[in-house]
């Protein structure tokens, strides 16, 4: 199934590494003009060095005013596709959660996602152009995970926002979907889940008995962004090896 993004402009947040970086690369290879956003300028520079046609914007999305300044339509031009991939995990028992932890996590996982979506949707509406948004959520939005209370809450908000946004802007031809991965074997994922003592209890809850690979999330995101999914909106797609089916 060939997917082509020629003539489209795609904005990808959290594009410095892992899933977000690979999404940006594959969109570029598919013919899209890509705008990659992330906090780490050095990693963005590395991406730019490998793919000079990709536009990179160093930005902390928790900064509302800076986001308004750098991601407005006059600065970046028309955007057709959005991937809200930027995310943060603050883990630990609820009784040890600090106010600053909650603020940091919700600012990125929820507030920034809403803000960037607002900017892109306003851009699409002004141009009377259809578009597609994909939010990178988590299996944690639909299942309780130990020591993930605030993270679960933030991803639950992402799923709810996805449904409401799809309802609100479907009549304008703007589709909004979410992907909900399990543990994915990014470099950070391999580091955090390489210990069998940590990994095995989770693997036993996954019918396929393995964690996901980056390309398995990227492929789903590209599908949702493409015209191949033209009748799909308001959906949360588990990429979890069956974890949520148990």
TrEMBL record:
Show where the Ketoreductase domain sits: 8-196
The protein's organism comes out as: Brassicogethes aeneus
Q: Which domain of life is it from?
A: Eukaryota
Q: Which GO terms describe its biological process?
A: glucose metabolic process; xylulose metabolic process
Query: Annotated Gene Ontology MF terms?
Result: carbonyl reductase (NADPH) activity; L-xylulose reductase (NADPH) activity
Enumerate the UniProt keywords alphabetically. NADP, Oxidoreductase
Regarding protein family, the annotation reads: Belongs to the short-chain dehydrogenases/reductases (SDR) family.
Q: What is this protein called?
A: Ketoreductase domain-containing protein
**Keyword flag Oxidoreductase:** yes
Organism lineage: Eukaryota, Metazoa, Ecdysozoa, Arthropoda, Hexapoda
Q: Which InterPro entries match?
A: KR_dom, L-xylulose/Carbonyl_redctase, NAD(P)-bd_dom_sf, SDR_fam
Q: Which residues form a coiled coil?
A: none
Instruction: Describe, as the record does, how this protein assembles with itself and its partners.
Output: Homotetramer.
């Amino acid at each position: 199934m060939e997917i082509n993004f020629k003539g489209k402009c795609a904005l990808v947040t959290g594009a410095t590494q892992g899933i977000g970086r690979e999404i940006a690369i594959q969109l570029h290879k598919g013919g899209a003009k890509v705008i990659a956003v992330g906090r780490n300028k050095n990693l963005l520079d590395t991406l730019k060095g490998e793919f000079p046609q990709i536009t990179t914007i160093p930005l902390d999305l928790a900064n509302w005013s800076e986001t308004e300044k750098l991601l407005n339509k006059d600065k970046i031009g028309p955007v057709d596709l959005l991937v809200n991939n930027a995310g943060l995990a603050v883990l630990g028992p609820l009784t040890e959660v600090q106010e600053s932890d909650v603020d940091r996590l919700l600012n990125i996982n929820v507030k920034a996602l809403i803000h960037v979506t607002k900017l892109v949707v306003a851009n699409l509406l002004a141009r009377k152009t259809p578009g597609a948004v994909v939010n990178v959520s988590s299996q944690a939005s639909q299942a309780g995970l130990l020591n993930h209370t605030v993270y679960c809450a933030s991803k639950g908000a992402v799923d709810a926002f996805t449904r409401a946004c799809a309802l609100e802007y479907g009549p304008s031809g703007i589709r909004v979907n979410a992907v909900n991965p399990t543990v994915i074997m990014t470099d950070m994922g391999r580091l955090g889940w390489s210990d069998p003592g940590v990994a095995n209890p989770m693997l036993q809850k996954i019918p396929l008995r393995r964690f996901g690979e980056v390309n398995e999330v990227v492929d789903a995101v590209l599908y949702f962004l493409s015209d191949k999914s033209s009748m799909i909106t308001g959906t949360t797609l588990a990429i979890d090896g069956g974890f949520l089916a148990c």
